């Protein structure tokens, strides 16, 4: 253990006389509450942006896959019509 000098002034607990006045306490509380609200809003903004970006990515992926299915069905229909025309004409 380190040896330190003893504090000559003993620490007496909490002294209400040196505390804030009622107005100071009220102002401090208001400032602290607005800071907490601002911090919470700043924390929420990136979450919404990330969620929105994820939804957009997911929607693009769904649109691509549905587009491929529609394209394949259209090609099959065109091929079927072409084969039927060739069969009936020949």
UniProtKB/TrEMBL annotation:
| Top-level taxon in the UniProt lineage | Bacteria
Q: Which UniProt keywords apply?
A: Membrane, Transmembrane, Transmembrane helix
Query: Any transmembrane segments, and where?
Result: 71-89
The Basic and acidic residues compositionally biased stretches are: 1-15
Region entry Disordered: which residue ranges?
1-23
The name of this protein is Uncharacterized protein
């Amino acid at each position: 253990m380190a040896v330190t000098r003893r504090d000559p002034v003993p620490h007496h607990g909490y002294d209400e006389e040196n505390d804030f006045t009622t107005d100071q306490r009220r102002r401090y509380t208001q400032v602290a509450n607005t800071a907490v609200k601002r911090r919470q809003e700043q924390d929420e903004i990136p979450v919404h942006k990330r969620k929105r970006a994820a939804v957009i990515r997911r929607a693009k992926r769904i649109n691509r896959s549905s587009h491929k299915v529609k394209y394949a069905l259209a090609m099959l229909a065109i091929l079927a019509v072409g084969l039927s025309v060739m069969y009936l004409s020949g």
